[in-house]
Amino acid sequence: MSCDVFVDRLKDAIGQDQVITDPDIMNSYRTDRTSTVEGSMPRVVTTPTTATQVESLVKLANEFKVPVIPQGALSGLAGGADPISGSIVINVAKMNRILDIDPVNLLATVEPGVINKSLKDTVAKEGFFYPPDPGSYTFCSIGGNIATNAGGLCCVKYGVTADYVSQLEIISPTGGLMVLGRKTKKSSAGYRLAQLFVGSEGTLGIVTKATMRLRHAPAPVAGTVVASFSTLDAMGLSLKEIASKLSPSLLEVMDKVTVMAINSWKNLGIDEEAEAVIVAQSDVKGAEGSEELRLIESICAAAGSTEIYRTEDPEEADALLEARRLALTALERLGPAILDDVGVPVSRIGDMISEIARISEMHEIKVGTFGHGGDGNLHPTLILPSRSPDVLKLADRCFADIVSAALSMGGTISGEHGVGLIKREYMKDQYGPLEVDWMRRIKEALDPNGLFNPNKVLFDEQYS
Questions:
Q1: For residue 126, how many other CB atoms are within 10 A of its CB?
Q2: Whole-angstrom Cα distance, residue 442 to residue 445?
Q3: Cα 338 to chain center, whole Å?
Q4: Domain 98-216, CATH number (from 3.40.30.10, 3.30.465.10, 2.130.10.10, 3.40.50.300)
Q5: DSSP state of 231
Q6: pLDDT of 461 higher than 60
Q7: Has residue 463 got a pLDDT over 80?
Q8: pLDDT exceeds cutoff 80 at 57
Q9: What is the pLDDT of residues 339-370, one digit of tens each?
Q10: Alpha-carbon span 265 to 267, nearest angstrom
Q11: CATH class assigned to 335-440
Q12: CA end-to-end span of the chain
């Protein structure tokens, strides 16, 4: 027996092989992919494999008043899974089974540790489609996608994770197993608690099972259009026209800094003289798909595109899409990077990218911007010359100015990465005091002991 009664009780509950106290191993659970923050050393890390085990862990945490940090694949980009000192990490990555595929009701039931791509690939073999596809889809998990309401490249046509949540089995903050939502296509009975849970970033409980909606597989991509623009105004005009008239299955944007970073790494030959590039795809069947691509080309040309390239070759299309998915990695190769995640109305995309460029010049910090042009979600990425204290302070001001610019355009401080640790201070800027108070009251009602993911999304005075 150890000198820590809490840890001994955890081992009795789920087995000592699933309880980690070695500091060297626990160190690997201290942070997600966010480069600007790092969590403290937890008291203990646990790796349960069943809902019953999670329930036992949460009940023990409440008994001993130990803060609980839910974790999954640690692919987050807002510090939302970083532990605090003295906490118990409950990492559900080992709960990774696809439990059922229901072809009649178009549903897939999975455990939270299932990787997004694994679900996509599995249902594709049955002729179905799970649309949400974050850039990290090859290694992010469904539980984490639910926690942050993750989006992705297909959002412009198919929506975000919240649109595909049918039913959730969760362990509440006080240790009770609950089922939220229904497996029916619609229900108007009571509050939509499953939707309340989506985007709650581990502050309202832990998902132990998720039933996600599927779609019938769309037609193969009809083709891909890449359009270059010498001005951001022209690019913004094109996005407005495309969004108001068409429904492309993908509509992405990259600025000059991002394109140059990708080309220097992968040598894809994308126009480096352009101020911005749009990548669009259509998955409409047959001649209608070809017509949609032709209309996209026409809109871009009318807005002043300097170069338009179209391909129906699947391999070329995959290469272009992979380039967009690797935008962050390409920028990270240039130096220490800080990734932002803001959203604005589609009608303000051009304005926002222009404002980011102005802020970049004002602070003398290189910023590469890419993102989902079809839904207004942008990822400005600050590239720092070093991590010296003075540079980091300057970067903080640059980051804050970008967030403020998004809010001034009717936007949001986060489109899909969540608030976590890095955006907490901006919540008061997006929401009024009454809205923040409502959030606090919901949190306090569901988590009366204040144990679940403290200091995430909102500040918790108890742990400040």
A1: 11
A2: 5
A3: 15
A4: 3.30.465.10
A5: S
A6: no
A7: no
A8: yes
A9: 999 999 999 999 999 999 999 999 999 999 99
A10: 6
A11: alpha beta
A12: 33
